[in-house]
Write a structure and sequence with these properties.
- The chain is α+β, with helices and mostly antiparallel strands.
- The protein has a domain of about 270 residues: Orthogonal Bundle (Cytochrome p450).
- The chain has 19 helices and 15 strands.
- Helix 5 crosses helix 12 and helix 17 crosses helix 19.
Length: about 425
């Protein structure tokens, strides 16, 4: 069944042909997810050569299912699984990823996460509220009188990277460089990445790692009250983090600590303006603000896919997987499952249904979720309160990538 020029679905065989590089898809993936829910919620994506799940219950349970994991080589060799040897031209990237919280399974994941988690629990994050408010207001001061702004470069890019850098203990003036490294680094996660993307990510990983080493050396000699000093000098069950673990953890926290939130600030402002909502009602108090933020996370999530390896033979939704098979879970599609959400493509700030899965679930639930939520709950109300009459000056430019979803530009006026 041809749904669109870039999408065809065979619901009998559960085979889907979908061109992720088509602007009609990455510009409005929700429409495709809606069609998949209708015809084929579990499907084999021909171009990606992999099974994908979009149903809320399947995605939610698979995120928690210990028969699946983020890594596979801790229980089987490449030869045994028929996997190729790693590409040498991305050796520095692979090294930077080797001890990433996103890539590990217990017990290594448990040890790393335990050391880092203290900084991200809600009661610690809440202490950042005053400086977050100060930063948001100071940025708005710089453009309020101009009557127009490109929001990403003047606001959304700056807030998350500044806050995560402060938390870890990276100098704020490194913000622009951190953004450059991060943008190049995460292109390794894109569908259809090119050799140019890989070379850029490799260069960024090398420079990023070399820089983090210098900060680690400085904190070893002169500890401060920051997360990096805590990670260096705190032991867990008699063990300290190694240099490579410190580098991987710092890089993943810096990248994950701002990249998705930048997208989500832009996505949230866009969906609010697109729907002609009254900001005074959306942000009238903390509970309504929280509901508004959760609804924006549901309907326009910034990260769409998490992948898992089957660690043992298992059958899910009638599909048999063997050890070493990879599956993909489309979080953003699960957020639109009509079995869980009434009128799922509609933005309803007062919605009170299932929790969104935008931060994942299970042991890999986003460690930075409390920080991301705080940032969104603080900066969105300030932005709309300070700039009454906010409107889009141009049609927003959507980033030409998948599986992240965000804007290239968001030109606003008031």
């Amino acid at each position: 069944m041809m749904i669109a020029p870039f999408l065809s679905i065979d619901s009998d065989t559960r085979r889907v042909s979908l061109d992720s590089s088509d602007p009609a898809f990455y510009g409005n993936p929700n429409a495709v997810y809606s069609a998949l829910h209708q015809h084929c919620p579990t499907f084999y994506w021909e171009q990606q050569k992999q099974w994908f799940f979009t149903g809320y219950d399947h995605v939610n349970s698979l995120l928690r299912d210990r028969r699946f994991g983020r890594q596979i080589l801790h229980i089987a060799s490449r030869e045994e699984l028929g996997l190729p040897e790693p590409d040498q031209h991305v050796a520095n990237f692979d090294l930077a990823e080797r001890y990433s919280l996103l890539e590990l399974e217990p017990p290594e994941h448990t040890r790393l996460r335990t050391l880092v988690n203290r900084a991200f629990v809600s009661r610690h994050v809440e202490r950042m509220k005053p400086e977050l408010e100060e930063l948001a207001n100071r940025l708005i001061d710089d453009f309020q009188d101009k009557g127009e702004v490109e929001l990403l470069s003047a606001f959304a890019d700056i807030i998350p990277v500044t806050m995560i850098a402060r938390m870890i203990g990276i100098p704020e003036e490194m913000g622009p460089q951190l953004l450059d490294w991060s943008h190049a680094y995460i292109r390794m996660y894109l569908f259809g990445r090119t050799r140019e993307d890989e070379d850029g990510a490799e260069k960024a990983a090398k420079e990023f790692s070399d820089y983090v080493k210098t900060v680690i050396a400085e904190r070893r000699a002169n500890p401060r009250d920051d997360l990096l000093s805590h990670m260096i000098h705190t032991e867990h069950k008699g063990q300290f983090l190694t240099e490579d673990e410190l580098i991987s953890t710092t890089i993943v926290l810096l990248n994950a600590g701002h990249e998705a939130t930048v997208h989500q600030i832009g996505n949230s402002v866009r969906v609010i303006l697109d729907n002609g909502c009254d900001p005074a009602l959306l942000f009238k108090d903390e509970p309504t603000t929280e509901r508004t933020v959760e609804e924006t996370l549901r309907i326009c999530a910034p990260v769409h896919i998490f992948q898992r390896w089957a660690l043992e033979p298992v059958e899910i939704d009638g599909i048999s997987f063997k050890r070493g098979d990879k599956v993909s879970l489309i979080l953003a599609a699960a957020n639109l499952d009509p079995a869980k959400f009434t009128d799922p493509l509609t933005f309803k700030p007062d919605r009170n249904e299932a929790p969104n899965l935008s931060f994942g679930a299970g042991i890999h639930f986003c460690i930075g979720a409390p920080l991301a939520r705080l940032e969104l709950n603080i900066v969105l109300p300030i932005l709309f309160k300070r700039l009454p009459g906010l409107r889009m000056a141009k049609v927003p430019e959507i980033k030409d990538v998948y599986h992240f979803h965000g804007l290239e530009r968001l030109d606003l006026a008031w």
